[in-house]
């Protein structure tokens, strides 16, 4: 398994008053033989904050934000409806994972099929985007191109699915309308319902961590909101990118986020140069800076015990989202539209 972490998209301009781009995303994940993990999980997110959760153990759609309860009060049978939709998808995904395993000539072992769909809306420019794609075992499997309303199959095992879905024009037209119209309408509603939470800013806690004197130094920022953050290094007052590795932005279980950046530097260079980690969070004008001192006056925290747990926490609440490593390379780019996008669709997911 390539890793179970939350998929997040992009870093916008920092230090602005409020987020200009809003997103509504649904992640459906079916898995086989993953220990202590539900066979099917649905996570729904607005602006990177989880709002709805469903899994095959509980078989209930539940709110993950207080404001979602208030929103549901205006929508009769909202949770019953969502639960019914997810239960139906659970059966389809159970069949899909068996079908794809056969296509790859696989039998047992850990395998994951995931669908990610949703939309984004720039509240300043009015531009919208929609996306609908599947992944298998951490790789792209199939995606809808909204410009051509055709399906893209980057792997031979997905060609059968592409041909079947291309011929089902009614289903394609439905999703095209959903992603470019309905989804945006619901996204705007959710942003309005949750604006007190989604528009807030929370400053980060920044620490420098190191496993051993010869190990890279990790700058770890956690507890910040929104998710748009830049964790960078400077050397003698200048931006420094050499021997720097940037980590993913990951969720914390309290709705905030964490991110790390790793610097490889020799003890000699630490003595002769001034290195500092700079953390910038969107919407907060202040920069958060931690200066790396020389090894003899080490200000880094050894990575042991609880600190290791801090670095590895992925959040049990937000589970089952596989990052598709080759997504950016293979061109599954959301197609731009000029109108609006949607809430969770009630249409049954087609069988792969």
From TrEMBL:
Transmembrane segments annotated in the record for this chain: 300-324
PROSITE patterns: IG_LIKE (PS50835)
Pfam families in the cross-refs: C1-set, MHC_I
Ig-like domain: residues covered: 204-280
The organism's place on the tree of life at top rank: Eukaryota
SMART domains noted in UniProt: IGc1 (SM00407)
Biased composition (Polar residues): 335-345
Leader sequence residues: 1-19
One GO location term (cellular component): external side of plasma membrane
Region (Disordered): 332-352
GO-annotated biological processes: immune response
Keyword entries, A-Z: Glycoprotein, Membrane, Signal, Transmembrane, Transmembrane helix
Similarity remark: Belongs to the MHC class I family.
Cited PANTHER family: MHC CLASS I ANTIGEN TRANSCRIPT VARIANT 1-RELATED, MHC CLASS I-RELATED
Listed name of the protein: MHC class I heavy chain
Organism: Oncorhynchus mykiss (Rainbow trout)
């Amino acid at each position: 398994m390539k890793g179970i972490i939350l998929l997040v998209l992009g870093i916008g301009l920092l230090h602005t008053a409020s987020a200009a781009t809003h997103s509504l995303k649904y992640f459906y994940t079916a898995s086989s033989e993953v220990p202590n993990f539900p066979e099917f999980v649905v996570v729904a997110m607005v602006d990177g904050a989880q709002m709805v959760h469903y899994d095959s153990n509980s078989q209930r759609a539940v709110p993950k934000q207080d404001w979602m309860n208030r929103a549901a009060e205006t929508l009769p049978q909202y949770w019953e409806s969502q639960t019914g939709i997810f239960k139906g998808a659970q059966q389809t995904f159970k069949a899909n994972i068996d079908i794809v395993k056969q296509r790859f000539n696989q039998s047992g072992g850990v395998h994951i099929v995931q669908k990610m769909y949703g939309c984004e809306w720039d509240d300043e420019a009015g531009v919208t985007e929609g996306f609908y794609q599947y992944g298998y075992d951490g790789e792209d499997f199939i995606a809808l191109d909204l410009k051509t309303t055709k399906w893209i199959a980057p792997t031979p095992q997905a060609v059968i699915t592409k041909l079947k879905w291309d011929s089902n024009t009614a289903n394609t037209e439905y999703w095209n309308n959903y992603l470019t119209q309905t989804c945006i309408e619901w996204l705007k509603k959710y942003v309005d319902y949750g604006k007190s939470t989604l528009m807030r800013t929370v400053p980060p806690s920044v620490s420098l961590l190191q496993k051993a004197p010869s190990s890279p130094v990790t700058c770890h920022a956690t507890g910040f909101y929104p998710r748009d953050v830049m964790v960078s290094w400077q050397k003698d007052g200048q931006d420094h990118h050499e021997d720097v590795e940037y980590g993913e932005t990951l969720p914390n279980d309290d709705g905030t986020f964490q991110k790390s950046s790793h610097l490889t530097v020799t003890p000699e260079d630490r003595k002769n140069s001034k290195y500092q980690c700079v953390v910038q969070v969107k919407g907060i004008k202040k920069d958060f800076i931690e200066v790396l001192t020389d090894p003899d006056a080490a200000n880094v925290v050894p990575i042991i015990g609880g600190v290791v747990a801090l670095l590895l926490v992925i959040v049990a609440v937000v589970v089952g989202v596989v990052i598709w490593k080759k997504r950016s390379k293979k061109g599954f780019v959301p197609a731009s539209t000029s109108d609006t996008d949607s809430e969770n669709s009630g249409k049954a997911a087609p069988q792969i």
